[in-house]
Amino acid sequence: MTDNSITAPSTTPRTNDWNLTGHAWAVDMLKKHIVRGTTRHAYLFCGPPGLGRRTLALRFAQALNCPTPLEPGIPCGTCRDCKQIESMQHADLTIVQADSEGGTLKVDQIREARKTLILKPYMSKYRVALFLRFHEANDNAANALLKTLEEAPSYAVLVLTADNPEQLLPTIVSRCEVLRLRPLSVDETQRELENRGLEHSRAKLIAHISGGRMGYALRLLENDSLLEQREERLNDLLTLLSASRVEKFKYADKLSKDKDAMRQTITFWLSYWRDVMLRAAQAETPLVNVDRNVEIEDLAGKMDLASLRKVVSGLENALEQMERNVNPRLLAEVMLLDLPRV
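The structure corresponding to this sequence follows.
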């Protein structure tokens, strides 16, 4: 497969004229495609969740179809078309994604999108289709999209988002212009949050938890319940380290009843144990859970690196198993029984 991917250069991100923090290189490249009339028929924006992939895709759709751009390639952001695209309600914009994060994108959804894409734009230059979190597509859906990519009309632009290209069929990746997006540094994220009026210590915490993923940082900023859930789940984790088997089975039963909450819990726990492992390894990498520094240092001093690698590997495997629809109750029980006793 030809490597047609473009990776973010190691330059200091800035707020660009698409009103995005970071990804300036990607914005510049996409603007040039629009201005020069060299827009590709398909793009793949990839990088960790919460990085701003969907926001970049929506800004691109605005730049393609804004009737009153500030200048070529720069959408006004205020006209009816721009506002409808921002809210994902535009007549010439199709959004295709699994019903919930971690769900399955199905072949029928691709077929419905294809019926729309063959129609000429209703009110704009391009008909744009966003296939969000396409790594959640099942095999039939992936093959159906491949057929769509091969037969897309000239007025259609398809944008896929995914965690990384390796999760997709090589034949799909090879037909897309691949943009590998990177997080901001933690310091840059903190400065941006402070520029938005956030108090220093809270900006620092959110910047570290988000790992420089600005989209996730803004979600944490806008939704206090996410930080509250994280606090509760990390407290639960510490309690479970000394809990009996009966208590662990009881917690597993409760945890497995909501798959989305279970996935979120494992993600919180995984970031915590990675911090412990990094401290045990005396790595210079900044902690994610900076507000838990004292207890992380304490745990790191009580466990050896091999044991910590096993814990991290087990949680990573649990997340993978969830994507494969393994029985959540059984998975939760095994995961909790594998936790070290400290």
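Strands lie at 5-7, 42-46, 93-96, 127-131, 156-162, 177-180.
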